[in-house]
Structure formats: C-alpha cells, structure tokens
Specification:
Layout (H helix, E strand, L loop, with lengths): L1 H33 L2 H27 L14 H29 L8 H28 L2 H28 L4 H29 L6 H12 L4 E12 L2 E11 L4 H15 L5 E11 L2
Parallel strand pairs: 2-3
Antiparallel strand pairs: 1-2
Helix pairs in contact: 1-2, 1-4, 2-3, 2-5, 2-6, 3-6, 4-5, 5-6
C-alpha cells in the first residue's frame, strides 16, 4: 500500500510539473506580447504551480522513506514541511502580483487583444480541470496534504483563468480596467489559498491534537468494553497524516494483570484500525471499586 501510494503521488507530481511548464510557456509568451496584466498574473501563478508540483514530488519521496533509528515514526511530516513551502511560495507570488496589478489599474494600462489570449485561457481551463479531477481522485484515495494542496491549486486555477478570460473579452470591447482588477482578484485568491494551506501545515508541525470526531470514535470503542470503568489522559501527536495516541484506561483493581493487559492490547488493535491512527498505546490503571 505504501509503495503504491508513493508511485501514485509521484505520478501526480510529474503530471503537474509537465502540465504547468507547458502552460507557463504559452501564458507568459502571449501575456507579455499582448501586455495583458491578468494573463501575466496567470503565468506567474503557473510558475508557482510548477514549484508546488516539484515540492509534491520531493516531499512524497522523503515522506515515503520507512522509519529508522533516527526517525522512529517515519518521515511522514515531510509532507507538511513541503506543503508549508508550497504555501509560502503562493503567498510571495500573490504579493508581487497584487503590486503589479494595482499599478496597472492605477495607470490605466491597456493590452493588445488577441484571439490567442482567448485560446490560451480555454486551453488552460481544460488542462487544469483534468489535473484537478486526477489529483482530487488521488487525494480521496490517500488523504495526503500534498495532494490536497495541489488539487485545490488546480481548482483555483480553473476559476482564476475563467476570470482572466472574462477580462480579455472585456478588453475586446475596450473595457481595459477589468484586466487590472482581475489581476488583483487573482492575487488575493492565491494569497488566501496559500494562507489556508500554511495554517493547516503549521498546525500539524506544531503537533495539533487529534480531531474531536475521531476522539469520539475512539471513546466509543473504549466504552464497548464493559471491563473498562473510565478513560482519561488522552494525548495525541501527528505522524505525517496519521496520529500517534496514548491514553489511560481504568479497570477493576482485582482484575488479573494478564487479563488487563490482554484487554489493552485488544483495544490498541481496534483503535489502530481507524484510518487516522498510526499507533495507539493504552496504559492500564487498576482502581478500587
């Protein structure tokens, strides 16, 4: 399963790199020739997408490495480190785009309308939609934050380029100020997406606790064992996209040690069957009833 996951995410990264390089060349060429600020902004967005796909490729390679003496829980957090890099790239790119688009809007810059601009937008939307469907399918299969970052990026690009197309059509009718406005909108969209990915990655790297809904599922498993009188001292820490958890169960002090530990081992196996759980450790505390 792990090897299949690595290969599939690797394919997603390569597809993203190839597709975005293709779009970058076309959009940058047409954008600079026609002086369209929204198309230039879109090309910069494609450049950041190349970096994002490259980060996905590298992050996936590192995170797929098995655990060793120096990394007892594997290398799963590499996914979030590289996802953090992706978000920073998006935030920096959006800042540059916002500045350029604002200047263009203030100076009432005009661009040269061309049907090549329209064709480029349509080609971009089709290419990005295909990448979006492919990447989201892989995300649903593996629940990987790098894939999540990428599929959201592809989805955003479809929307962004649609607005670019609208601004270009407006330019055909002599309404050029829409071009700069769309460039500003694109930059803000990229900024907000980057911030969202940054927060999610940062939370995991800062060992945010397990989601409450999953905790409730674990508590439900615990309560299914009548021998367990209480459950407390619940701790969790992320290990890649999964969690290492530790908690204490209270049992009758008269229960034989062998039986109490057998109960704990059985509970650990049940908890580890949950998708988000990497490893569970259950501590037994005998109490007087």
């Amino acid at each position: 399963m792990a090897e299949e996951k690595f290969k599939d995410i690797k394919k997603v990264g390569i597809a993203g790199i190839v597709g975005n390089i293709f779009l970058l060349i076309i959009k940058a060429s047409i954008g600079f020739i026609s002086h369209s600020q929204s198309m230039i902004a879109d090309s910069v967005n494609s450049a950041s997408d190349i970096i994002a796909s490259l980060m996905t490729f590298i992050g996936n390679k590192i995170s797929s490495e098995p655990k060793d003496n120096n990394h007892n829980f594997g290398h799963g957090k590499a996914e979030y480190i590289f996802s953090l890099f992706i978000s920073i790239t998006m935030i920096l790119a959006s800042g540059k785009l916002l500045l350029d688009s604002t200047i263009s809007l203030i100076h009432h810059d005009e661009f040269i309308f061309s049907w090549f601009l329209v064709a480029t937008c349509i080609l971009t939307i089709i290419t990005k939609f295909i990448l979006f469907i492919y990447t989201k399918t892989m995300y649903k299969k593996y629940d990987n934050i790098l894939l999540k970052s990428n599929y959201k990026d592809h989805r955003n690009d479809c929307i962004v380029t649609t607005f670019t197309l609208i601004s270009i059509i407006c330019g055909f009718y002599g309404i050029f100020w829409i071009d700069g406005l769309v460039g500003i909108g694109i930059s803000i969209w990229i900024l907000l997406t980057g911030i969202g990915i940054f927060i999610e990655s940062y939370n995991v790297l800062m060992d945010v606790a397990l989601d409450e809904s999953i905790q409730e599922s674990i508590i439900k498993l615990v309560k299914s064992h009548k021998e367990i009188k209480n459950c407390y001292n619940f701790y969790s820490t992320p290990v890649g996209y999964q969690y290492f958890i530790v908690f204490t169960i209270a049992v009758d002090g008269d229960m034989p040690t062998r039986d109490s530990h057998k109960l704990a081992n059985h509970l650990e196996k049940d908890v580890e069957k949950l998708d988000k759980i990497y490893k569970a450790v259950v501590h037994v505390h005998p109490v007087d009833l």
